[in-house]
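ok so i was messing around last nite and threw this chain in just to see what happens. nothing serious, just curious
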Amino acid sequence: MRSTEPPSNNDRLIQRYLDFLRLERRYSEHSVLAVRRDLSFIEGPLTAVSATALKTILAKRHAGGSAPSSLARMASSWRGFFGFLLDSGQIELNPALGLKTPKLPRALPKAVGVDQLAALLQGPLPEQYRLAQAHALIELLYCTGLRISEALSLTDDVFANSIELRVLGKGNKTRIVPIIDALRERFAEFSGLRTKHLMQIGNPPVNALFLSAKGLPLSARQAQKDVSEFSKLRGLDQHLHPHMLRHSFGSHMLQSTQNLRAVQELLGHASIASTQIYTALDFDHLSGVYDKTFPRAK
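result:
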């Protein structure tokens, strides 16, 4: 039986913030649920929480074995939430601003090698629609650096008469990504298969570029499964997920251009600091080349 008890002030404040993240900041549902979970650890009225209380929660979670990454994410969620309350006049100070968490080990994003991706994407699209779509999606993600959510928001006419993609990314920020000829040709090939797929299942035309087996807009979870399955069938020796293709795009672009600012613009990073991670990837690549080719390195 559904409860008729009115929501508490805490519940109302949290819901307003989560709605802000969904609608204004365009957070994924997974990220919104993570923030909700992080806020659930705070006890008492949210407008009266002290910095000491937040530090105590973090200390208890740390003692209980929570990973540094979980604690860092929790503190970040709190800073964002109390910043929202501060901006809306609900509180006078953000109690989460001075929180410190255990230092995170530096984790480099995983990327796929240029030769491996070339082998993965060579040849015509498979005959089976789901695999053909996975092939086209992989090529799109690698050639543009789009996030999977951005790719799945594209419409079926996006390649019709344009030489660029206009992408609405995180924080409602728009960026422009060029469409290379090879990608346009691939999607001309894919368009015919997509139309055939809709005709076979008897569905009316759908606006979304990528479709499920039933002709509905493709979900991120199914896209991840299809990308992984296609790469395994093609013999890729590592697990492939959509975001790895974005990392590969950033890494390979930086290796080719040495232009960090251009890579930042293409990836839609708000801060150059987010893009600088690819300089480490680039150094790893150069180190590998050095070790393999320089005589004195052997």
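not much to say yet. DSSP finds 13 helices and two strands in the chain.
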